[in-house]
Design a protein that fits this description.
single chain, 191 residues, mainly alpha, Rna Polymerase Sigma Factor, Chain: A, Arc Repressor Mutant, subunit A, globular
């Protein structure tokens, strides 16, 4: 409920509310944006442009159930469009044709303690078998603890499609890594 009041105050021109929205979401936005491009400048520019546009258009922006989901979805679209332009891709390319990087941080001490080298390599190989959308949905579900409604809203897909992406991704991982417990791995991995 506090987020809804914060959004309302922001829409009414409250700079403190706007600042609070920025501060509460900047880290997650940067981390999420970095999954689309390794270029930190592009991510920072897109976040800055996103918040500038939010402020400029605050009076006409609609309501939202989740500020975080709204911002993640808006940043996602902005980065995809910007990277398409920088690659000089045809503007008719759909938003589905993008690169989303989901890598395992091999320096993480929990992974070192729990998984042997063979297990890490199998997991990395299994991750390569996931579609870009599956990687993104799994990232949202297990690294940001988003529910299916939030994932579907952020990815601009329906609820069942979000469930299918997660289920299909986990099935692919499970098929490729028969002896590892998938859920345990996701809680042990830090990006």
């Amino acid at each position: 409920m506090e987020n809804l009041n914060l959004w309302k105050e922001f829409k009414e021109g409250d700079k403190t509310a706007f600042s609070k929205i920025f501060n509460q979401n900047i880290k997650i936005l940067y981390k999420y944006g970095s999954k689309f491009t390794p270029n930190g400048e592009i991510v920072e520019d897109c976040i800055q442009d996103l918040f500038l546009d939010l402020w400029r258009n605050r009076k006409t922006i609609g309501e939202t159930d989740s500020i975080k989901n709204y911002l993640l979805g808006a940043l996602r679209r902005r980065i995809i469009r910007k990277t398409q332009k920088s690659r000089q891709l045809n503007t008719d390319v759909e938003l589905e044709n993008y690169d989303f990087q989901l890598e395992i941080n091999t320096e993480d001490h929990l992974i070192k303690a729990e998984l042997k080298e063979e297990g890490k390599e199998k997991l990395k190989g299994a991750m390569e078998n996931l579609s870009k959308r599956q990687k993104e949905a799994i990232y949202m579900k297990y690294f940001h603890e988003m529910n299916y409604d939030e994932i579907s809203q952020a990815l601009n897909i329906n609820y069942q499609s979000a469930r299918n992406l997660i289920y299909g991704g986990l099935k692919t991982l499970k098929d490729n890594i028969k002896y590892l417990k998938i859920i345990l791995i996701f809680f042990l991995i830090k990006l």
